[in-house]
Design brief:
Blueprint (H helix, E strand, L loop, with lengths): L5 H14 L6 E3 L5 H5 L8 E6 L3 E3 L12 E13 L5 H18 L9 E13 L2 E14 L5
Parallel strand pairs: 1-2
Antiparallel strand pairs: 2-4, 3-4, 4-6, 5-6
């Protein structure tokens, strides 16, 4: 069940954290197309799209049949940030990245669900008139058993 999935709970915790960032107006859980971005009102920008990858378990020796295996996994979340600014887009990008960085590193254990968080901004920025975009990857390390990932 997705609601009880540790992966899902971690993703939801990140969404909740992002919704509390004052410089972010809208948080969504799917990668928007250019057409989708055009449907957002200017008052709904900046938008952050949270796109979660699949967790990647770090290999370890298994203890078969005990049901007590604990796995260490890394979950990559890509945060795609979209905004408009015809005057000073570089300053707006700095503000957004700074606010996201501060918020996501405030609780690196994601309300007790994870062991740690590492943020990796991508060096590349995009511009599709009139939208500016950048990506910030959050790698979240957590443990789980054999009963779910």
């Amino acid at each position: 069940m997705a609601a009880n999935s540790k992966r899902e709970r971690i993703v939801q915790q990140v969404v909740t954290e992002l919704e509390a960032v004052s410089s972010v107006t809208t948080v969504i859980r799917k990668l928007p197309t250019y057409e989708d971005l055009g449907k957002f009102a200017l008052t709904q920008l900046p938008v952050v799209a949270v796109v979660a990858g699949l967790p990647v378990p770090i290999p370890h020796p298994a203890t078969r049949g005990t049901g007590k295996d604990i796995f260490l996994s890394e979950l990559a979340l890509s945060l795609y940030c979209y905004f408009q600014d015809n005057v000073n887009p570089d300053s707006t990008l700095s503000t957004l990245l700074d606010d996201l960085w501060a918020k996501l590193y405030t609780d690196q254990e994601k309300a007790g669900l994870a062991l740690g968080t590492v943020l990796k901004p991508t060096a590349h920025q995009d511009y599709w008139h009139p939208f500016y975009a950048f990506r910030l990857d959050a790698i979240i390390t957590y443990t789980h058993g054999i009963g779910g990932i």
